[in-house]
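Morning - zinc ion inputs below, output right after.
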Amino acid sequence: MSSGHLGGLIQPTERNFVSLVSFWASLREVKRNMLNKIKSASGGKRIAIGMVCLLFLALAFPVVGKEQLRKPANIPPVLEKITFVHYAKGENSAKPATDDSDRFKLLYGGIRWTDMMTYEVNLAGSGFSQTEKGQAMIALSASLETWDDAIAEAGTPPFELFASIGTTNKNSVKYDNVNLVMWDDLSSGIIAMNSFWFSRGTKEIVESDVVFSSNFDWSLDCGDEDCVAKMDLQNIATHEFGHNGLGDLYSPPTTALTMYGRSGFGDTEKRDLGTGDINGIQALYGP
Ligand SMILES: [Ca+2]
Ligand SMILES: [Ca+2]
Ligand SMILES: [Zn+2]
């Protein structure tokens, strides 16, 4: 789903270097054979063989020069991309509320950020009015700080995962050193997605782009308005931001957790973390 633009990150491997070494070895072998022939030949034959040797070396050296230029230098870690898709609950899939579960799911043995990261937000397509846009930024910040608070509770020294958010005009999901939050025309039934880039080798997440669907109406405060047909931004955002190391959960005991993989209209239970969410984020970012 991502290989197109990741191709540029995959550098030449040591194969070029190995082929250069074996090329030199075969070159030495040829030279030795030629010297032996020159020694055993005489007169005009020597001159003819000598000229063949010169021609051979003239042809060989430019090739060696090019090969040396391709010698591997600082190879960046090979990045992979995965996308978590958050679907709306089906009409008849409502499950009875259950007790908080202590379950959580780490990804690839515990991939995580090693430094504080910053999301940049583009609210175009969100449907929010100018006034609401300010509230939306507050809701997104609240979602991020909910996770930072849980990490801080793990003990000292606290790790801060999320810096204060900024705004941006960028509007496409790609590996570009910008952790983007944006709205887009997602397929029917998809509420939001988090695409992120990571290295399996270093277990490091290096970029995350979150997209909310512009095909849903979004709410900011269900206390003041009818949220029956709206998705609560803080609810969904808290779930999406949890993907910075935590995977989706689907089993029935986890329906009350933030990292439960589905949401419905008017749901707000993901705004607050459950036991499993807290255990998971502390396992990744606690001291
Ligand atoms: Ca923070
Ligand atoms: Ca990006
Ligand atoms: Zn999810």
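Note: The radius of gyration is 29 Å.

O.
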